[in-house]
Fold this protein.
Amino acid sequence: MKRSLSAVKPTGKLTLGNYIGALKNFPSFQNEYDNFIFVADLHALTLPIDPEYLRNNTRDLVALYLACGLDPNKTTIFLQSDVSEHSELNSILQNYLYMGELSRMTQFKDKSQKMNQNAIGLGLFAYPVLMCADILLYDADVVPIGEDQKQHVELCRDLVHRFNTRYQKDVFVMPEPTIPHVGARIMSLSDPTKKMSKSDEKGDIFLLEDLKSIEKKIMRATTDLGSDIYFDKENKPGISNLLTVYASLKDITIDEATEHFKDCHRYGDFKKEVAAVVCEEIKKIQDRYNEIIASNLVDEVLKEGAEKAKKVAKETLKRVQQTVGIYGK
Ligand code: TYM
């Protein structure tokens, strides 16, 4: 059985962008693939974060994985920090990636540009190395992600090629990024030319946000001049973003969504319908989340998940250690 693997960083409250680009798609892999989904808590340390906030986000994220349809009997759900092999493989792989290629990563450039240039953490710079370790440790064939992570998986592919060529054997499996056709990049509601990210209160919709507040944000979403509803990313970024959200949640194509709204000539009516679909979906998730967070399920799932993940990770690490000449027992 082929293996699928993905993760989310618990750096903030999960957004509708995280849901549409990633979480919503994770359960579809659990029937056809040996599915591994984890919480990238070590990655969350690459920028300063309050420990209590991180702990709560981590717990919420696991509960949200389950609320979004991941079944712990079909998917191995675990914390990155519970499997020390991630860090061990990271320390080997850092010797096979180059500073030049890491400094060209868009996410690093975006984040570091806003920082004091003398205080950019090494972990932020080396972030993609750990991500390569995450993927390669599990021999993942496919990696379901949103568009912003594609460059990191491509770097991982370069690394696999480099490593396997150097040792002249298929030590690592070549991973394939899987990006949704609709909704790979959900934009901010307040500025639809920017990506919706965990740190933009006004432009974000959070999965655990009050439904009234979500509705308000959608009704106030920045739109463009005009009154017709059609997809045109350049000239109508706000409308195109809302159409994408609608199409994704309805599991239809952008063309089908445009057809649905062809007789609607008022942005207000259009936004109301989008808001209703978003609130309906998020309410289902919140109801399940509330049940899960009040139970012991999160701890039980993580305990079992860590054991299963460790078994696979240990084997891979041993294979890599033996390949490079470390005495892997
Ligand atoms: P993170 O936590 O930034 O995002 C989690 C997932 O959500 C997707 N995403 C979006 N999709 C559509 N529209 C948006 N506005 C949007 N914002 C975020 C991301 O593409 C991602 O799929 N480095 C990763 C976590 C990670 C990982 C891994 C992923 C660590 N190791 C190994 C896959 C495999 C990250 O920071 O995702």
Q: What stands out?
A: The pocket of tryptophanyl-5'AMP is lined by residues 5-9, 17-18, 20-22, 40, 43, 131, 134-135, 143, 145-146, 148-149, 184-186, 195-196 (CB under 6 Å). Residues 297-324 form the longest helix (28 residues).
